[in-house]
Amino acid sequence: RPIGSYARGLNGLEALAFVETASALSGDPKFEQGRNQLLEWGYHKEVIRQKLTFPPGNVFHSDDRLAFYVYHPLLQYTKDPELRSIYRRSLERSWEIERIEHVPWFNFIYGALTGNDCELDQATAHLREWPLDLIKYNFRNSHRADIHTPKGYTPYSGGVRPFSPRETNGRRWIDSWLDPDGGSNAREVEDPSGWLDAYWMARYHGMITAPATNDPELTSVPKRGLQLGAEPYKGPPRPE
Q1: Computed from CA positions of residues 83, 104, 108, 200, in that sequence, does the dihedral angle turn out positive or negative?
Q2: H-assigned helices in 3-161
């Protein structure tokens, strides 16, 4: 079989999203022709089951993030009702598999695209439990006696139950939150882009409201005379 054929659902989802978005934004008929070619090749028939659950070696959480990136423009720009129903079924199936992890980024995208319950309480709790210290310390939970699947969930692609950032560490949305043990022996530091990405998306869609306080100690950072980050650019001006 061709290399990468296991991911034909994700590949088809991305390809259709690219040409649909390009067609909507540019109006160039070549992109509509490209979409029609993909449909003739049956790309849309692979989309519903794009989220893989087996075999374990083909389950990549980074692929889940790629898929949810393109659900948004695909559903925004696709007008054909039959195709929209296929893409919605794909999204519903993917989120049903993902939702046990309580990952805010996936929950917020699902809620924004469907208007359905996206388990907002679990998603915001996950954000609150991120530590300020993002050093990847080792963590171990597999010895615990409370490891069982929560009521109402099914771990379709492995694992048993989700573990919060307080039980593990802060991570971006390309890792499984069902892994009980992990870490990197404090040799790595995670960047906070995942948290910021999810938080501000929820703020944009009105799922999280702005802080209600005007206390400057809570809404700002005092100037301390420190040079944080790179020094300001002092080279020649940008060319016209």
Answers
A1: negative
A2: 8-26, 29-40, 61-77, 81-98, 104-114, 120-128
Judged on CB neighbours under 10 Å (0-12, 13-18, 19+), 211 is exposed
Residue 41 main-chain phi, psi, to 5 deg: -80, -5
Nearest to 173 by CA among 151, 160, 191: 191
Whose structure tokens read 């597999």?
142
Give tens-digit pLDDT for 142-178: 999 999 999 999 999 889 999 999 999 998 898 899 9
80-98 pLDDT, tens digit per residue, is: 999 999 999 999 999 999 9
Residue 142's contacts (CB-CB under 8 Å, 6 or more residues apart) are: 180, 181
Contact 193, 172 (CB under 8 A): yes
The answer to whether the bond into 2 is cis (omega within 30° of 0) is no
Which residue in the block uniquely carries the two structure tokens 């924004």?
112
DSSP code string of 131-164: -S--B---EE-TT-S---PPTT---TTS-SS---
